[in-house]
Amino acid sequence: MIAGVCGGLAAYLDVDAVWVRLGAVVLALVIVFAVRARLGTRVETVSVQREDLVQSVVSTGRVIATARIELGTQVAGTVARVLVDEGDRVAAGQLLVQLVDDEARAAAAQPRAVHDEAVARIRQLGITGLPVAEQARRQAEADVVLARNEFQRVSELAAQGFFSAAKLDEAKRNLDSAEARLRSARTQADASRPAGSDHALVVARAEQARRAAEAAAAKLDWTRIAAPVAGIVLKRRAEPGDVAPAGTRLIALGAGALQLALLVDEKNVGWLQVGQRASAVADAYPDKPFEARILRVAPEVDAQRGTVEVKLAIDAPPDFLKPDMTVSGELVVAKRAGVLTLPAEVLRDAAGPQPWVLVARDGLAVRQPVKLGLRGSGRVEVVSGLNAADAVVGPDQTAIADGTRIRAVAPAPPAARKPGLQDGGALSR
């Protein structure tokens, strides 16, 4: 019995001890909450800093050539050879495509032969034709003088009765014949001179043959598709054996300097000016940035996309850059030195008409409207509303409202930010 009484007493004492311990825990929690209520919620803050700020607009686009030349056939033919591939850089006059030219070569040979023959005839007229004709003329003139003298002599003697009428008639026929030969010799000599009919006829024949030869040579040249200017092959649309009707496009050539064509959100157009510098990277070479500058801002907006095309010149294009490559560009639109800045993520209602922040003042989170200026890479300019070294409630503190008692901790050192197109603070599409 005594044992039972002792056991009951022990059980009673254990229960009492539990309640004592539970009461102590509750008391401790009350004290903690009371302290916290008095000191406030622990929050991390960031400091307003004075620094140089750069505002940029980030957008994407493509590499373009200033000129795109489509090269095709002027005559129907079969492709014999294609001497370039897409991406090849070519020089002015370089042969790109060769068509089968057997018929064109044969057609060009005939007028060249006719022309060469006519030229030889002209040379012959000058070397032998004219001298022979002149010699024949001089001989005919001498024969006329002799025939005229003989006719005069026979006429006088016939009048005296020494010669018959038949003799006189013979002398007259000889004179007429000599004069006819003279006229023919003179005509031939005149025709053989550079201004003569024979010479003119041969010259005309040579000229006609020359034009025919030039036309045939042009058609032969049409079987050769060459680069009119230096550039880069954008498209190859022909293979050996292809039958190409006249007018078929075979090669697309990009010529002139390479440029960038970026599509910028229309809301950022007001920041853009010709001459502003930019940094760009090709998606295929993200670790190789290059410099560019704004050349032209399109005067119209793409209504469907809400974008404006911006052309940028590349002063020193890298060797790897090719037309139609996808690129990203960061356009530097504004710079200010020694301005007050905040991390963009601490702003409340940042897109609204009146952004604000929570400032730690006298143990309270106080709503403070701010006026903003430039927006840089992850940071914004504070034009008014804050002073240097003000402690602003940091990001991810959505539970903290205006008037909340807080216990601000020392701001953590800012994380190192790497400049580049990957930063999220720049204006972008």
Strand order of the largest sheet: 2-9-12-11-10-13
Given helix and strand content, the structural type is alpha+beta
**CATH superfamily annotation of the largest domain:** Efflux pump adaptor protein, beta barrel domain
**Count of structural domains:** 3
What's the oligomerization state? Answer: single chain
The CATH architecture of the largest domain would be Beta Barrel
Task: Please specify the SSE layout and strand pairing.
Layout: H1 2-39, E1 41-47, E2 49-72, E3 77-82, E4 89-90, E5 95-99, H2 102-159, H3 165-192, H4 197-221, E6 224-226, E7 231-236, E8 243-244, E9 249-265, E10 277-282, E11 285-297, E12 307-313, E13 326-343, E14 356-361, E15 364-369, E16 371-375, E17 379-384, E18 391-393, E19 406-409, E20 427-428
Parallel strand pairs: 1-19, 2-20
Antiparallel strand pairs: 1-18, 2-9, 2-13, 3-5, 3-8, 4-7, 5-6, 7-9, 9-12, 10-11, 10-13, 11-12, 13-17, 14-15, 16-17
Helix pairs in contact: 2-3, 2-4, 3-4
